[in-house]
Structure to design on (359 residues):
């Protein structure tokens, strides 16, 4: 840190992304990426667009915005396209939170919300999830502030039924509820259907998970045309060319290739069910996940130790050093083959653990 850094940033704890190691080849089950390549149509359209890179991208990202609007049954003025959904979330913090409008989110959720609050100088409150990691709606009812809810939540994978999201939105029409649906395509029910009914609801989604495009950095937010105009205002005040040409073209290809998207989501859902069964048979307990990851723990081994032992054996999962969830690991649902490797390594680790325990 230099002596020139402004004090406000000096005290900020930046978001820590999951490891992306280069030193050896891991079975990578730590950052909820897709095990499948992007749609061939997305790749083709990105490559063709590459020839036009000497020109700035379209600041309104018209083609992709129109494709998204058509896909999700809204108008283009209800959609803003962003550089990953992280950017949409950051824009929402910038646009709607302030000194007298705090951000409210669960104590166990996507770690970036806290960082967005801090970097934007926004007060925030972390509202504890209930003992079973579900959201306590009554606690939000008591407070004023912009609500950020990941649904399904991360890292628990727990899905809050749409009726409860609607109750939260309806509770207090004078505040905004932002529903972060990064993992919605793996079995949850989207709140996009409520956009026309409520002007205080903003939904964000991403191409990073279900559309296998984490490296392209593409996300979007959907809401009333007024909310979206506010986000455009922030976008035009930070980076009007926030989505590059190749990414925008890839996005159009991915949306056109609906069959590929559906097939991959289905594969993940199937592999999740099978892996959950196998892990339960090995003695793991887990939350009920509607996402492309499992959140698991085992009585015989500490969360951190399992993470470390797996890493030694070439399998990366995500462990969070947070007291309430320190016993757990979040395991991305990869391909069937990757999950076979994970299960085989876990079996070995547990055998050693049991042997040591009985000595
Ligand atoms: N929300 C949640 C809950 C996430 O886990 C992630 C991925 N790290 C994001 C948003 C942001 O994803 P991206 O910026 O790749 O769209």
């Amino acid at each position: 840190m230099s002596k020139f850094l402004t004090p406000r940033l000096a005290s900020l704890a930046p978001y820590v992304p999951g490891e992306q190691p280069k030193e050896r080849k891991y079975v990578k089950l730590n950052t909820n990426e897709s095990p499948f390549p992007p749609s061939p149509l997305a790749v083709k359209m990105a490559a063709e667009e590459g020839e036009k890179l000497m020109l700035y991208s379209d600041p309104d990202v018209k083609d992709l915005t129109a494709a998204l609007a058509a896909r999700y049954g809204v108008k283009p003025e209800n959609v803003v396209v962003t550089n990953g959904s992280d950017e949409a979330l950051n824009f929402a913090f910038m646009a709607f939170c302030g000194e007298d409008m705090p951000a409210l989110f669960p104590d166990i959720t996507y770690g970036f919300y806290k960082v967005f609050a801090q970097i934007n100088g926004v007060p925030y409150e972390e509202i504890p999830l209930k003992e079973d990691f579900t959201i306590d709606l009554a606690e939000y009812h008591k407070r004023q502030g912009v609500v950020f809810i990941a649904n399904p939540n991360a890292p628990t994978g727990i899905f809050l039924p749409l009726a409860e999201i609607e109750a939260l939105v309806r509770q207090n029409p004078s505040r905004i509820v932002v529903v972060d649906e990064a993992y919605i395509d793996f079995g949850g029910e989207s709140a996009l259907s409520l956009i026309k009914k409520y002007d205080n609801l903003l939904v964000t989604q991403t191409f990073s998970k279900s559309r296998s495009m984490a490296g392209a950095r593409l996300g979007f937010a959907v809401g009333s045309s007024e909310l979206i105009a506010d986000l455009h205002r922030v976008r035009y005040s930070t980076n009007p060319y926030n989505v590059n040409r190749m990414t925008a073209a890839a996005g159009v290809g991915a949306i056109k290739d609906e069959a590929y998207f559906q097939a991959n989501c289905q594969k993940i859902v199937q592999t999740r069910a099978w892996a959950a069964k196998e892990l339960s048979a090995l003695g793991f307990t887990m939350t009920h996940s509607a996402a492309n990851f499992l959140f698991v723990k085992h009585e015989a081994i500490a969360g951190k130790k399992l993470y470390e032992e797996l890493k030694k054996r070439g399998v990366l999962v995500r462990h969070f050093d947070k007291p309430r969830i320190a016993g757990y690991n979040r395991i991305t649902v990869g391909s069937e083959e990757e999950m076979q490797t994970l299960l085989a390594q876990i079996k070995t680790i547990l055998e050693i653990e049991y042997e040591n325990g009985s000595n």
